[in-house]
Q: What sequence folds into this?
C-alpha cells in the first residue's frame, strides 16, 4: 500500500468513527428520560411527579466540591426565583460515596439542612442518571422544558461565568435561558462549558 493510500485509509476510518459513535449525554433538543431517585427526606422524586411545572432546573452537585459550595446560594436563589414561574430546581448528587464519604446520603441530609435547601436533593447511587444526562462536573446544569408531557433539554452547562463571585458574573447563562423560555422565546445560548469538580465515578472492581 502506498503512502497516499495509507493516508486515505486513515482519514476514511477517522471519518467513519466520527459519524458512527455518538457522544453520550443529552444535548439541547433531546428528550430527557424520567428518573425516580431518593430525596434527603427519604421520599422518591421523579420529573413526572413534579406538580404543575413548565419544566425543571436539574443540577448535578454534591457536598464536598468547592465549586458546588460556591454555587449553593445561587442554586437556592434560582429555585426561589423560578419555582413560582414553573421551573423548580431538582438537585442530584452523582458522586461515588465510597471514594468520597462526605458525599454519602447522611452527608447530603446534613448539607441540605445546614443550607436550608428549598428543593429536592436526590442521590444517584447507581450513577445511571448522571451517565444518561452526560454530567461531567459538579455543578452541571440542565434546564428542561415540558413540551406535550415530555421534558426537553433546552440548556446545558454552567450557571454563570464566575464561579468565585456571584456579584462579578456578567453572563448569567441559566437565568438568561429561563427568562427566554418563560417569555416564549428560543434560548439564545444553549450550551456553555460546565466549570467544577469532575464527577467521582465508581471504579471497576
A:
Amino acid at each position: 500500500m502506498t503512502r497516499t493510500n495509507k493516508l486515505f485509509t486513515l482519514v476514511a476510518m477517522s471519518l467513519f468513527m466520527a459519524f458512527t459513535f455518538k457522544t453520550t449525554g443529552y444535548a439541547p433538543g433531546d428528550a430527557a428520560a424520567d428518573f425516580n431517585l431518593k430525596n434527603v427526606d427519604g421520599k422518591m422524586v421523579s420529573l413526572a411527579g413534579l406538580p404543575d411545572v413548565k419544566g425543571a432546573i436539574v443540577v448535578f452537585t454534591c457536598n464536598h466540591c468547592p465549586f458546588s459550595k460556591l454555587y449553593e446560594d445561587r442554586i437556592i436563589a434560582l429555585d426561589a426565583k423560578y419555582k413560582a414561574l414553573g421551573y423548580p430546581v431538582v438537585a442530584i448528587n452523582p458522586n461515588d460515596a465510597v471514594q468520597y464519604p462526605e458525599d454519602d446520603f447522611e452527608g447530603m441530609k446534613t448539607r441540605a439542612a445546614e443550607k436550608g435547601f428549598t428543593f429536592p436533593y436526590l442521590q444517584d447511587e447507581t450513577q445511571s442518571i448522571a451517565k444518561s444526562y452526560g454530567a461531567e462536573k459538579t455543578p452541571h446544569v440542565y434546564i428542561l422544558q415540558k413540551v406535550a408531557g415530555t421534558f426537553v433539554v433546552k440548556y446545558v452547562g454552567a450557571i454563570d461565568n464566575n464561579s468565585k463571585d456571584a456579584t462579578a458574573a456578567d453572563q448569567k447563562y441559566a437565568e438568561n435561558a429561563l427568562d427566554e423560555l418563560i417569555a416564549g422565546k428560543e434560548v439564545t445560548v444553549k450550551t456553555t462549558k460546565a466549570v467544577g469538580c469532575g464527577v467521582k465515578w465508581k471504579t471497576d472492581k
User: Anything to note?
Assistant: The mean pLDDT is 90. The chain has one domain: 24-198. The first strand starts at residue 37 and ends at 39. Helices lie at 3-20, 66-82, 105-115, 128-133, 173-182.
